[in-house]
Amino acid sequence: MGIASEVFGDALPVAERYAEFLAGPGVERGLIGPREVDRLWERHLINCAVVAEAIPADARVVDIGSGAGLPGLVLAIVRPDLKITLLEPLLRRTTFLTEAVGLLELGNVEVRRGRAEDAAADLSVDVATARAVAPLERLAGWALPLLRPGGELLALKGERAATELEEARPVLARFGVRTAELLQVGQGKVDPPTTLVRVVAERAAARAPRRAKGSRKRSS
Questions:
Q1: What pTM was computed for the model?
Q2: Would you state the pLDDT for residue 2?
């Protein structure tokens, strides 16, 4: 908990309430696996909180496929300056997220039920985040239309991050992105550090084609 205190600072009590909510209703409703309870802090909460290192002050953020609120709710806790939209298509998950926002008394969060390709009609943000949603070549097509020119996609990725980035380069080229690179955040706070794929939009992207029903993959 020493690292958690360092990462969350004065917001640690709020993070603790969120951890309890994940370990209780989150498990009961199938948003978090029972085996994850013992490693909630290192594998989920701190792992997501350190993403804040890569987000500029006062940014407007959309968390795509927010699920149980990872990383979106964690970022809202650790960075009250951010304005965050938790975007999630499934009702049971948006219900969970709405309850969590109320429990944690977070005034900087909006829960929105819907898909990224539909939200692009009226949502323009500085940063899009995503964790365990889809391979980068698909995720980019959903996220980039949500970004203002110069906005950033920050995708939390694991061991295949470099491979996914290379596989996605043709898609990124079609969108005319400015840069696409790997970043590591949380050095000395989480082991291994959190790996991000950072994609910077050069211009506002065209809307992605609608996905076929049932094509979305998400496990939590």
A1: 0.90
A2: 86
